[in-house]
Amino acid sequence: MNSTFISDTIRQALTQAGLQRGSQSGGIDIHRVIDDALAAAGLSPGGSAIAPRFNDAPPTVPKAHGPQRPAALPGEFVWKRHTGPHGSRQYRLYVPTTKQPGRKLPLVLMLHGCKQHPDDFAAGTRMNALAERHGFLVAYPAQTQRANGSNCWNWFEPSQQQRSGAEPSLLTGIVDDIHAAHPVDRNKVFVAGLSAGAAMAVILGQTHPDVFAAVGAHSGLPQGSAHDVASAFAAMQARGPQRPSRGGRRAVRTMVIHGDADTTVNAMNGAAIAGQAVQAFTQSGVGLEAQPAARFERGGRQCTATSFCDELGIPLVEEWVVHGGGHAWSGGDPAGSYTDRAGPDASAEFVRFFLGADAALPIVGEDGPG
């Protein structure tokens, strides 16, 4: 059953129910919600709901959201290609001018969401500016439309939730290529993503804890929450049981950011990611203490942040809820798609969580950040 048939069937059912395109319910455009949900599951018209075919084709710019060029910065921002046993993927790499001779650099892998592209994601997150400021490398892998019709990472496929999966192997292969060409600090390699990219970032933290020191999940889903297209839709709306990952969960530092008004991926998924991360530390013998929830205003939105710290007071898991935030990168630049100018700067907060004191950014405390 192809994606066009699925999406057309849903739209016909809505029309028959008297819900024409543009119909509103509680101020929400119902068809727009359905379109976003189809895209997040990789099922926009023309997409594929079958196993992906890996190839060497260059990334195709999604028609719905063409990429914007990120702001000009003094560092080098170039296209690269990784090729391995599972095929190849292109990626954008930003190399800061602030690097110091003899100093190994942290690396942040940024995974775009559905209907996005590396340039688009770089523009919307402004992560390159933070890389220039703090001196780290940042890479933006590009999913291909042949692998997924909506440029989604295939987070819902069981084969992609394993260490041997094609997409996890390609993404970690990109890390290896960058390490071969640049002085990467292998103890400071991080991964963050939005939506389907966040779901894949969580998977990478579980399948490759030896590669990634921490995970940043924005509007994402936990590993094992889906195993096919139908369960992907259920998971996005926080329905249905979650399947535990094989071999138990790995303890990996994790930061979650999720808007509680997200109608595409229910915020309960963000809470599940954080809860599973805390549980994994507990099972590994590292007890975490939940700090009093910090409530504060940031960028015109109210936020609640909860830190789970080890015995030294170091936050190993953080969960941020952006009240009124939708399915978009919080504090992002409107030059990119799926961004919300309001709210905390998600990019800065992920960097602060990843690098800690190295980032010279505020740490969440009982009275709120800063």
Automatic annotation (TrEMBL):
This is PHB depolymerase family esterase. Residues 50-69 are annotated as: Disordered. Pfam families: Esterase_PHB. Coiled coil: none annotated. The keyword Hydrolase applies. Keywords: Hydrolase, Signal. Gene3D superfamilies: alpha/beta hydrolase (3.40.50.1820). SUPFAM superfamilies: alpha/beta-Hydrolases.
